[in-house]
Specification:
The chain is 36% helix and 24% strand. The radius of gyration is 18 Å and the shape is globular. It has one domain: Ribokinase (UDP-N-acetylmuramoyl-L-alanine:D-glutamate ligase, 3-Layer(aba) Sandwich), CATH 3.40.1190.20. The protein is an alpha/beta fold. Bound molecules: adenosine monophosphate (AMP).
Length: 307
């Protein structure tokens, strides 16, 4: 089953302790598509300016990303400039230029309107809501956001999450959105405002999935070399939603597996700049890494040695 995604299609300039990349392809919609397309067909909705290197999106098309909803208009593409210092868990935004996104009004192609899985990737919450108003009763709607939008458009985010089933955000964003420093309380606060499922990512410390009566935790894969954390969150979401779309199963056990698949995809994304690594890997690589996750957390239940 296909996944529809609306998100930023960007040119990123990133500095990490290991190097620099200028004007490389990025954006929440792009990372999500590169990741989810390993598992399911993807329908991308977004906008780029006339300066965008469209040829660099070709590998995504080849992998099954339908770009009928990606408009190219006159003006500058969305640009993000960020830096990571030694704490690779948090990006410092140096510059955000919305460019063509500031006047964008998404038009969902008719063939995308009945997508069963919809992901409203990080972008202006007004655009996320606009997309949601144009689709026909999906099986699952999920969204993401970030500090930039929580600071500037908090009321719009609160209005949006009333209509979504699931939200993914990182720990800092969860605290900022809810004003709760405790993450369990933050998740409960969010659940009161709409989503039945809340996924809080903690970078190299893994991810929690909160539901009304259960909490699930998956670790992050302990990589020896993290090169560029940009896009880890969107790639997590792509793996998570892509797996749900591939299986069509929303049971609790399958949602838990989806969190692990998401963590596996997030771990690949950070191994190289931009979407480079996501484009190199195959489904087989994903399966192998999921198996490594299983080994990472496997232990015997027998408590014989604990008195
Ligand atoms: P993450 O998965 O959180 O690391 O997301 C990284 C991507 O988010 C980068 O490729 C950026 O282009 C994109 N991005 C940064 N700021 C914004 C924003 N305010 N709205 C939408 N996308 C953004």
């Amino acid at each position: 089953m296909p996944v529809l995604v609306v998100g930023s299609v960007a040119l990123d300039s990133v500095e990490t302790p290991f190097g620099k990349a200028d004007n490389v392809i990025g954006g929440s919609g792009t990372f999500f598509s590169a990741s989810a397309s390993l598992l399911a067909p993807v329908q991308l909705v977004g906008v780029v300016g006339e300066d965008y290197p469209m040829d660099q999106l070709e590998p995504l098309k080849k992998r099954g990303v339908d770009m009928a909803g990606l408009e190219q208009v006159s003006g500058e593409s969305f640009r993000w400039r960020g830096r990571y210092r030694h704490d690779l868990n948090s990006a410092e935004t140096l510059e955000t230029r919305l460019g063509v996104f500031s006047h964008f009004s998404p038009k969902i192609p008719p063939q995308f309107k009945n997508a069963p899985f919809v992901f409203l990737a990080n972008i202006d919450p007004r655009l996320q809501l606009d997309v949601l108003n144009q689709v026909e009763r999906p099986k699952l709607v999920a969204c993401d956001t970030m500090n930039f939008w929580i600071e500037s458009r908090r009321p719009d985010i609160i209005a949006l999450i009333k209509h979504v089933d699931l939200i993914t955000l990182n720990d800092g964003e969860a605290r900022q959105l809810t004003d709760c420093s405790n993450l369990v309380k933050a998740a409960k606060w969010i659940m009161k405002h709409g989503p039945k499922i809340v996924i809080i990512k903690k970078g190299e410390h893994g991810a929690f999935m909160f539901k009304e009566n259960s909490i699930f935790f998956a670790p992050a894969y302990p990589l020896e070399d993290v090169f560029d954390p940009t896009g880890a969150g969107d790639s997590f979401a792509g793996g998570f939603m892509g797996y749900l779309a591939q299986t069509g199963d929303l049971s609790d056990e399958n949602l838990r597996r989806a969190v692990v698949v998401g963590s596996a995809l997030g771990s690949f994304a950070v191994e190289k700049f931009s979407v480079q690594r996501l484009l190199e890997i195959t489904r087989g690589d994903v399966v192998n890494r999921v198996e490594e996750f299983r080994r990472l957390v496997a232990f015997e239940r027998e408590l014989g040695t604990v008195s």
